[in-house]
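Entry — protein

Goal — fold tokens:
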Amino acid sequence: MAAARAGVQPVETLDVWYEANTPAGHGPELHSALRAVATAVKAIAARTARAGLEGLYGAAGTTGGGGDSQKKLDVVANDIMVAQLSACPAVGVAASEEEEAPLALGSGRYAVVFDPLDGSRNIDVAIPTGTIWGIYERPAGASPEAAVLQAGSKLVAAGYGLYSSATMLVLSTGSGVAGLTLDSLLGEWVVTHRSIKIPDRGQIYSLNDARRWEWPDGLRRYIDTIQRGEGEHPKQYSARYVCSLVADVHRTLLTGGWAGNPRPHLRLVYEGNPLAMLLEQAGGSGSDGKRRVLSIAPSALHQRLPLFLGSARDIAELESYGDVQQGAKTYEL
């Protein structure tokens, strides 16, 4: 093979990355499912970028599967994901945060769970949003619901799309975490972060400080301690909070620390499990404040939980305070 010319590097695309990261026992079928998700993320990115031009800001006037009010782009993003997955023979079941029940798509080997547009309340002010997804192998004879109500430890692949200054696809097939950036000139996903490793401790925490007065004592003591620089890490922590889970997790994955919500607000199936897989594959942790997220067997499609994702030592220190889970409550904003 001829040597690469000076200054010219080969482009590592999603297809090339998958060839080197194919999990044992899987192959072209999983590749096909991943490509369907990746194509959907491209399409959602395009519609998100044009939301103001296409009249896609604002409420849709409908509610999603979990009972939340939908934005127009929630509906659009969900339709895009369902359309792409329906066209993929490898996908037999699709389950969305925006749907009441899983969709039976055929006899395909895989079940895909997803939050089509996380952080959609931020769309109207052009703050980063994302798509969260996970892929399970469908057990033989399993109903569509049983296919997606599996513990996160059984995920075959997981990832998220990030819609920001760059469009990224961050994913894992069980052997580490990679980040790919959408090259608009090539129309291809290109590997830009070959092996993402979260620092074992950071200096940033991410949650809504405005709810401090309702936090449990353990969480309040923990935050007070790390803000003063009196925790296990001798430096003072700072808060960074976008209120878009994908954006907050992406920063955390690259710089360390943790992001989360102490209320039982985030969905185990559609958000908690896929993101916890990514954090663990990058060397971090995913916890509900007491338990490893990936060990929790879901009992309902829209089951919610407190969620803390981040550096392993930071999450362990947080858990050591014991009382860090806030009771359920819905806020106006």
Summary: The longest strand covers residues 258-267. Residues 136 and 156 are 5 Å apart (CA to CA). The helical segments are 14-20, 28-49, 72-86, 144-148, 217-227, 245-255, 268-281, 312-319. The mean pLDDT is 95.
